Amino acid sequence: MFNLFQMQKLRIFWPIIAIILGVFSSCSKDELALPSKVYFHFGMTPHSDTENEEGFKNGYGSAGQPGPVSFTIDKGTLVVAAIEFDGKREQGQDVYFISDFPTPVVAKLHEEGTQATVDFDIPQGIYKRIDISLHLGNDHNDIPLKLEGLFNRPGLGPVTIRFEYPFDDILTIRSTGGGANQEITLRKDQPSTAMIRLDAGSLFRLINPAVFMNADIIVENGQNILEISNSNNRNIFNQIAARMNNAFTIVFE
Q1: Distance between CA 55 and CA 171 in Å, rounded?
Q2: C-beta separation of 239 from 212 below 8 A
Q3: Which of 24, 131, 172, 226 measures 20 to 30 Å from 197, CA to CA?
């Protein structure tokens, strides 16, 4: 049983304890509001393939010409009008924002470069989930995604191959951490990098190189181009475009 003296002591110390707890809570909330610098980089993983079906093992292509059918995709340009961030933290409020770029970001994927630095100040903390949405396209009729490489036609030499995705679109990608732990930790005193990478193999891996032998070739400025778009070789375009959401990864490091 508490005696009167003990009860008086509790009455004295309880407000002090409440103040201390309130200060710690306030400090914790203030800490979670502090910004962490995050730099966004863009890149790509090239892809190459060679026809290995039985008919090509003797060294002849589908047109009866010497040599295998092969292609490589190793260049790319991505136009991003806005980046949308949706993060869920273990502590503190969830974080949501959408960028306000004065001009769209044009990323040379094969060079891992953009015309301007892309960075954000994002509240620090441990994030259980971060979804990044890329708003593709702009108002200048630039192709939002363009991938290029070479297609080797047996006996006829190489020809430029070009994939064009002409639609203003929104791609939402679930981000991951750089280590084994999938949680993403952003710290006020340690800048982070969010690497947005397109895997060309994810788009083209299921396309048999021999299919390109029957594709339509266009002439552009006197050069033969195997263009894959919603206007040319649309059957191939549809197969590739259907895999767009699976082609991008984002890793925070």
Answers
A1: 39
A2: no
A3: 226
First to last CA, the chain: 57
Beta strands in 23-118 (DSSP E): 35-45, 47-50, 70-89, 95-98, 105-108, 113-114
Over residues 107-122, the pLDDT tens digits come to 999 999 999 999 999 9
| pTM for this predicted structure | 0.82
- Cα dist. 108→104, 112, 113, 116, 167 in Å? 13, 6, 5, 11, 18
Token pair of 6 as six digits: 């003990």
Q: For residue 222, what are the CA distances in angstroms to 65, 96, 236? A: 24, 49, 24
Q: What is the DSSP string of 200-229?
A: HHHHHTTS-GGGGGGS--EEETTEEEEEES
Classify residue 243 by burial, with Cβ atoms within 10 Å: 0-12, 13-18, 19+.
middle
pLDDT tens by residue, the chain, 253 residues:
445 444 454 455 444 444 444 444 444 557 878 999 999 999 999 999 987 544 444 444 444 555 678 899 999 999 999 999 999 998 999 999 999 899 999 999 999 999 999 999 999 999 999 999 999 998 777 899 999 999 988 777 899 999 999 999 999 999 999 766 678 999 999 999 999 999 999 999 988 888 888 899 999 999 999 999 999 999 999 999 999 989 999 999 9
